[in-house]
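Weekly structure sync, notes
Attendees: PL (lead), two postdocs, one rotation student
Agenda item 3: pending single-chain targets
PL asked that the sequence for the first pending target be pasted directly into the notes so everyone works from the same version. It is reproduced below exactly as submitted, 284 residues in total.
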Amino acid sequence: MQIFDFQIKHLIYNALNEDIKGGDITTDAVVSENNNPVMNCEVTAKRACTICGLDIFSKVFEIVTKNDYVLDFYCREGERVNAMQKILSLKARAGDILYAERTALNFLQHMSGIATASSIASGELRGLKTKILDTRKTIPGLRILQKYAVKIGGGENHRFDLSSGILIKDNHIKLAGGVKEAIGAVKKHYSGFNFKIEIETSCIAEVKEAVASGVDIIMLDNMNIDTMKEAVKIIDNAALTEASGNITVEKLRDIAVKTGIDYISMGSLTNSVIPADFSLNFVR
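Predicted structure, written out during the meeting:
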């Protein structure tokens, strides 16, 4: 997954505006025209994590310094780093560093936290066919960065928005009058050329209806392992399978091994992740 400048620059400007729209009254008191030296600083990981967001970090300083900075990275995007490991060094005017550091670190910490969670989850499934998926449970406005971080950590992306994939959920089924009716309505509306049809099921009866109606992906929502195992057997490769609903890292391998599911989606990868932790310090 590639991120382009036009997709993210407005996110960075919004974040900077949020933090420094009224200036930095502390920095402005210390820094002056006669006291704004070029400084060297380093960013260090305070605990082990998977790195993500280096380019975003750089773009924050590109904007604030008007491209008057030097940045050297000591790791690559997606690399696992250890606690107290130096991540990068930066050379710029002291005032620019103090103005930009929190915004740059916030992006780096949040994205690295997601990449770390994605890496841990994907690692639980190493050697198995089952893949980890994210969801649309993202922070409003930051979805592209969050889904990018999931990919960097080794996970896969589910649909990006409501127009990028068909997913018939429980409320659609209720509104249409049943599984068969909902699938029929979707097939009538779309040719099927561009989109696969996925449907959320909550019981074996709905699974059987979904198989009979001919969908591409069947989500097994909030089912226990025994029910999921039975469902996968009934589906018998007639559709791809996805497990979803309150799934934790501790359950991942057990679910995958015992059911043979194709995908497991986890909202927690983006909606409740613990940020990574970095420090930025001047080096004399």
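Discussion points:
- DSSP finds eleven helices and twelve strands in the chain.
- The mean pLDDT is 95.
Action: rotation student to compare against the earlier draft before next sync.
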